[in-house]
Amino acid sequence: MSEQDVVPDGAKIGSLKTLTQVVYVLYALSYFTGITAIVGIIINYVKKEEVAGTWLESHFSWQIRTFWFGLLWAAIGVATSVILIGFAVLFANFCWIIYRIVKGWLNLNDNKPMSF
Question: Is 114 a member of any domain?
């Protein structure tokens, strides 16, 4: 039996839950600092194997999708801002990312996995 086959104990889950919360904080702080979301996505990918098979795996998937789709829509918004529709796209993207951070954080606080 390898180390990865062992189900994480309560202390390990608690540590991973704290790490998941840190990533939500980093994503939220990115609106003020502009760079912390990159640190968050790196954490997601580095620790992804450790949360595999736990309820926290759904939060990592949620966070990773939030980052990449948020980046995609930000790029589309910037590219189309010349024709003014981009500002609406950027605002909608801002609201969508805030929603995903809040919803994920609330579910994490309640020890619930994310449903897609």
Answer: no
Report how many domains make up the chain.
Answer: 1
Q: Is residue 21 part of a domain?
A: yes
* Structure token digits, residue 62: 């949620």
Nearest to 40 by CA among 58, 55, 60, 56: 60
Residue 26, CA distances (Å) to 22, 29, 84 in order: 6, 5, 30
> For residues 105 and 64, is the Cβ–Cβ distance under 8 A?
no
Tell me the H-state helices in the chain. Answer: 10-33, 36-51, 56-79, 85-109
Distance CA 14, CA 25 (A): 17
Q: pLDDT by residue (tens digit) across 86-102?
A: 999 999 999 999 999 99
Per the domain annotation, does 116 fall within a domain? no
Q: What do you get for the CA distance between the two ends of the chain, in Å?
A: 32
Q: Which domain holds residue 64?
A: 3-109
Q: Compute the distance between CA of residue 83 and CA of residue 32 in angstroms, rounded to an integer.
A: 26
pTM: 0.89
